[in-house]
Protein backbone atom coordinates (compact mmCIF):
# COMPACT_ATOMS: atom_id res chain seq x y z
CA UNK A 1 0.00 0.00 0.00
CA UNK A 2 1.32 3.43 -0.92
CA UNK A 3 1.12 6.19 1.65
CA UNK A 4 1.70 9.85 0.82
CA UNK A 5 2.60 12.43 3.45
CA UNK A 6 2.18 16.19 3.00
CA UNK A 7 4.25 18.88 4.70
CA UNK A 8 3.63 22.60 4.43
CA UNK A 9 6.45 25.01 3.71
CA UNK A 10 6.77 28.76 3.15
CA UNK A 11 9.42 30.03 0.76
CA UNK A 12 10.45 33.35 -0.76
CA UNK A 13 12.58 34.81 -3.52
CA UNK A 14 13.58 38.22 -4.79
CA UNK A 15 13.52 36.89 -8.39
CA UNK A 16 9.98 35.54 -8.82
CA UNK A 17 7.40 32.91 -7.97
CA UNK A 18 9.10 30.12 -9.92
CA UNK A 19 12.33 30.72 -8.01
CA UNK A 20 10.45 30.74 -4.70
CA UNK A 21 8.93 27.34 -5.55
CA UNK A 22 12.33 25.99 -6.58
CA UNK A 23 13.78 27.23 -3.26
CA UNK A 24 11.06 25.26 -1.47
CA UNK A 25 11.89 22.11 -3.44
CA UNK A 26 15.63 22.55 -2.90
CA UNK A 27 15.24 22.89 0.87
CA UNK A 28 12.71 20.05 1.18
CA UNK A 29 14.90 17.66 -0.81
CA UNK A 30 17.72 18.12 1.71
CA UNK A 31 15.76 16.07 4.26
CA UNK A 32 12.92 14.39 2.35
CA UNK A 33 13.09 11.67 -0.33
CA UNK A 34 10.52 10.59 -2.92
CA UNK A 35 8.95 14.02 -3.45
CA UNK A 36 6.04 13.59 -5.88
CA UNK A 37 4.48 17.03 -6.16
CA UNK A 38 4.24 20.54 -4.83
CA UNK A 39 0.87 22.26 -4.54
CA UNK A 40 1.12 26.05 -4.26
CA UNK A 41 -1.72 27.05 -1.94
CA UNK A 42 -0.93 30.76 -1.70
CA UNK A 43 1.12 33.34 -3.57
CA UNK A 44 1.94 36.80 -2.26
CA UNK A 45 4.33 39.68 -2.82
CA UNK A 46 5.88 42.22 -0.51
CA UNK A 47 6.00 45.79 -1.78
CA UNK A 48 8.29 48.69 -0.91
CA UNK A 49 8.13 52.10 -2.60
CA UNK A 50 5.59 50.80 -5.13
CA UNK A 51 7.92 48.01 -6.26
CA UNK A 52 7.74 44.27 -5.63
CA UNK A 53 10.62 43.32 -3.36
CA UNK A 54 9.87 39.70 -2.48
CA UNK A 55 7.75 36.90 -3.96
CA UNK A 56 6.40 34.41 -1.43
CA UNK A 57 4.63 31.05 -1.71
CA UNK A 58 2.96 28.66 0.69
CA UNK A 59 3.53 25.13 -0.61
CA UNK A 60 2.28 21.67 0.26
CA UNK A 61 5.01 19.16 -0.54
CA UNK A 62 3.81 15.57 -1.11
CA UNK A 63 6.11 12.57 -0.82
CA UNK A 64 5.75 8.80 -0.67
CA UNK A 65 6.30 7.09 2.68
CA UNK A 66 8.37 3.90 2.71
CA UNK A 67 7.54 1.05 5.12
CA UNK A 68 5.19 3.23 7.15
CA UNK A 69 7.94 5.69 8.07
CA UNK A 70 8.67 9.19 6.88
CA UNK A 71 11.32 9.54 4.20
CA UNK A 72 13.54 11.93 6.10
CA UNK A 73 17.25 11.57 5.63
CA UNK A 74 19.59 11.53 8.65
CATH H level, superfamily name: Flavin-binding protein dodecin
Please report the first level of CATH classification, the CATH class.
Alpha Beta
Order of helices and strands: EHEE
Instruction: Supply the number of structural domains.
Output: 1
Shape: elongated
What is the correct CATH architecture?
2-Layer Sandwich
What's the total helix number? 1
Q: Total strand count, please?
A: 3
Mean pLDDT: 92
**What are the segments in which pLDDT stays under 50 over at least 5 consecutive residues?**
none
Rg calculated over all Cα atoms = 14 Å
Kindly state the percentage of residues in helix: 10-25%
CATH fold-level assignment: Dodecin subunit-like
Summarize the structure.
The chain is of the alpha+beta class.
Task: Please tell me about this protein's structure.
The protein is of the alpha+beta class and 74 residues long. It has one helix at residues 17-28; strands at 3-13, 35-48, 51-65. It has one domain (3-65): Flavin-binding protein dodecin (Dodecin subunit-like), CATH 3.30.1660.10. Helices cover 16% and strands 54% of the residues. The chain has a three-stranded antiparallel β-sheet, covered by helices on one side. The radius of gyration is 14 Å and the shape is elongated. The mean pLDDT is 92.
Spell out the key features of this protein.
single chain; 74 residues; alpha+beta; Dodecin subunit-like; 1 helix
Layout of SSEs?
Elements lengths: L2 E11 L3 H12 L6 E14 L2 E15 L9
Antiparallel strand pairs: 1-3, 2-3
Amino acid sequence: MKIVKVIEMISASEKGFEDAIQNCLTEASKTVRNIDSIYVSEMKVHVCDNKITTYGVNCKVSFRVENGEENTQP
